[in-house]
Design goal:
heterodimer, A: six-stranded mixed beta sheet, five-stranded antiparallel beta sheet, 0% helix, globular, B: seven-stranded mixed beta sheet
Chain lengths: 116, 118
């Protein structure tokens, strides 16, 4: 069965510091992977996704993530944090057999705090 | 671009009352989903509909029913609300490629319904 683990429910960084949010997955087949962001009182928005091709994926707002098959990881990074990056971030994996359902398996989420 | 629209945005119910949460999408997506979000528990899938006319249980279906009214609309009903159903409910939709094993299509989310049951 596929699963997603996000290491650290809360991450705190200073403004201008590197952001690193960790995501590990388990899957019996090469997965498709997604990162979403949720700002307060809003729904989830897609940040980026990995399906095939280049393993370093660039998304919106300066975020990027690298798919590492050997480490079963898809960590999200941003070189320099802004106050506006404070939000909750979710990693998700496309479920086996999802071509007909579109179902995703979500991690538990990581809350990013950015300190001035 | 409306995307996914949920109504209402807020609701307070008394235990035992019933209520229907409405969701509509204008992206011509095949699949639609209902999630609940609770502190520390991430998103949990309640029900989903892979296509018009079909619905299936997700991870936490007890106490809920759904209706896929047409391709655009997917409603969630609480027949007899309980305090344990106090949560934020999200509707989402996605396109489905129908080929291969995995979908590469992201889900698009509404802004949520904040439901309190007293």
């Amino acid at each position: 069965a596929q699963s997603v683990t996000q290491l650290g429910s809360h991450v705190s960084v200073s403004e201008g510091a590197l952001v690193l949010l960790r995501c590990n997955y388990s899957s019996s087949v090469p997965p498709y992977l997604f990162w979403y962001v949720q700002y307060p009182n809003q729904g989830l928005q897609l940040l980026l996704k990995y399906t095939t091709g280049a393993t370093l994926v660039k998304g919106i707002n300066g975020f990027e993530a690298e798919f590492k098959k050997s480490e079963t990881s898809f960590h999200l990074t941003k070189p320099s944090a802004h106050m506006s990056d404070a939000a909750e971030y979710f990693c998700a994996v496309s479920n086996f057999g999802s071509s007909n359902t579109g179902k995703l398996i979500f991690g538990q989420g990581t809350t990013l705090q950015v300190k001035p | 671009n409306a995307g996914v629209t949920q109504t209402p945005k807020f609701q307070v119910l008394k235990t035992g009352q019933s209520m229907t949460l409405q969701c509509a999408q204008d992206m011509n997506h095949n699949s639609m989903y209902w999630y609940r979000q609770d502190p520390g528990m991430g998103l949990r899938l309640i029900y989903y509909s892979a296509s018009e006319g079909t619905t299936d249980k997700g991870e936490v279906p007890n106490g809920y029913n759904v209706s896929r009214l047409n391709k655009r609309e997917f409603s969630l009903r609480l027949e007899s609300a309980a305090p344990s159903q106090t949560s934020v409910y999200f509707c989402a939709s996605s396109d489905t490629p129908g080929q291969g094993f995995l979908s590469n299509q992201p889900q698009h989310f509404g802004d949520g319904t904040r439901l309190s049951i007293l």
